[in-house]
Amino acid sequence: PVSEISAFCKRFPELGSLLGADICKQLDENADEALKNAYSTLMRADGEAVAEAITAIVSRAPAASDEAHSFAIELDRQFPGGDVGVLSVFFLNIVHMVPGQCLYLKANTPHAYVSGDIMECMACSDNVIRGGLTPKYKDIEVLLKSLVFESRPASILRPTHVKCGAECEASTYAPDDIDDFEVVKGFREHWAVKEWLDMLSSYPSSPPAECLHPSGVLERPLAPSEVLTSSEPEDQ
């Protein structure tokens, strides 16, 4: 929420100075355009000023309860040299996920994966716009024109459990307002390739078109009448 960003500006004067007094006042008043104006100001800030602010902030020892500060220190360790993405941590939700959880992000929502292994599913797109935490080119103006600025908590998507045949179950992750794709996680104590194929064939709705298996990759031809095939022998 905007109130947390305002609190960060008070806790870290370097961040408040980088944004400026007018922006900090907007954050205090929770003005409609406060989030957009504050983040845009941060991303357009002079690189040297950003680096100086980061150095000052990460040089302090974080309080035990100050998770955002700890993340900023870790991100600066991974991306040294004044990467503006380090300060973005004070504008974003911090989410700790556990196996089986799904985080739903609307299009044009800035995000970053700090650690761990995840599977990302998205509609086909060739326009990744970088905003930080990378040595690659960042087109800040295109980024700011594309982003949707909303102050809201993270959206954890709960799965729907379905039966696939007599012994198999699956969890379906399907956001209500997304028609492009859904993610299905099938599970049993032990999986063989044939069981994966059986699960896909008996899936209640349209079978998944692309699948991941611990022993390899399974593929289903586009034509529904065609037989599912596997790139791995059944005994693996």
From TrEMBL:
**CC annotations in GO:** cytosol
Going by the entry's taxonomy, the superkingdom of the source organism is recorded as: Eukaryota
Under which name does UniProt file this protein? Phosphomannose isomerase type I helical insertion domain-containing protein
* Originating organism: Perkinsus olseni (Perkinsus atlanticus)
UniProt-listed Gene3D superfamilies = Phosphomannose Isomerase, domain 2
Q: Which InterPro entries match?
A: Mannose-6-P_Isomerase, PMI_typeI_hel, RmlC_Cupin_sf
Pfam families in alphabetical order: PMI_typeI_hel
- PANTHER family given in the database record: MANNOSE-6-PHOSPHATE ISOMERASE
Q: Give one GO term, molecular function aspect.
A: mannose-6-phosphate isomerase activity
GO biological process, alphabetically ordered: GDP-mannose biosynthetic process
Report the residue ranges that make up the Phosphomannose isomerase type I helical insertion domain in this protein: 28-92
